[in-house]
């Protein structure tokens, strides 16, 4: 599992560069945390019994919101506005870019990279929302289980 976390980290970092998106270690860790949780420890890219796709399990309505935001604002021109929703399933860099843009639309600043509990609360509040089943503890535990021990081993 830990090798998958490194692969996902690389995809996130490449997405930030490829699509000229703002990012830092807080951004990378938040996206890793979301992916670790939403994909069941990097094991699936299609929601069980639902329409969400990709490592970040993005819903079609969220994807449409992001594309609308990109079209309205003209920001992040490196992202093709005509890319279909299904691309989230096969292109982890594109999925990471769309997830990053969605998080960019939130006015609250990201917690620091070392504030894992803060990142988990942020993920719950803004990615999963109060309507979702996840908890901040679940985001944190999935990050620690599938990512953190690996990051510390390579540091």
Secondary-structure element series? HHHHHHH
- Low-confidence runs of at least 5 consecutive residues: none
* Strands, total number: 0
- How far apart the termini lie comes to 18 Å
Radius of gyration: 14 Å
The CATH class turns out to be Mainly Alpha
Q: Overall pLDDT, averaged? A: 93
Q: Major beta sheet, specifics?
A: none
Say what the CATH topology is. Lysozyme
Give the overall form: globular
Count, helices: 7
Strand coverage percent: under 5%
User: How many separate domains?
Assistant: 1
Summarize the amount of helix as a percent range. Answer: 55-70%
Q: What is the second-level CATH architecture?
A: Orthogonal Bundle
Structural class: mainly alpha
Which structural traits does this protein have?
155 residues; mainly alpha
């Amino acid at each position: 599992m830990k090798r998958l976390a490194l692969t996902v980290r690389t995809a996130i970092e490449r997405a930030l560069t490829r699509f000229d998106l703002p990012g830092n270690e807080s951004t990378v860790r938040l996206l890793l945390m979301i992916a670790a949780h939403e994909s069941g420890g990097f094991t699936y890219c299609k929601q069980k019994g639902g329409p969400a796709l990709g490592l970040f399990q993005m819903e079609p309505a969220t994807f449409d919101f992001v594309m609308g935001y990109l079209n309205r604002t003209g920001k992040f021109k490196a992202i093709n506005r005509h890319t279909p929703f299904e691309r989230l399933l096969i292109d982890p860099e594109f999925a990471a870019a769309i997830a990053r843009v969605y998080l960019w639309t939130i006015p609250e600043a990201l917690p620091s990279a070392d504030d894992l509990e803060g990142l988990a609360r942020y993920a719950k509040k803004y990615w999963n929302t109060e309507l979702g089943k996840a908890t901040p503890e679940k985001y944190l535990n999935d990050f620690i289980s599938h990512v953190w021990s690996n990051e510390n081993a390579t540091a």
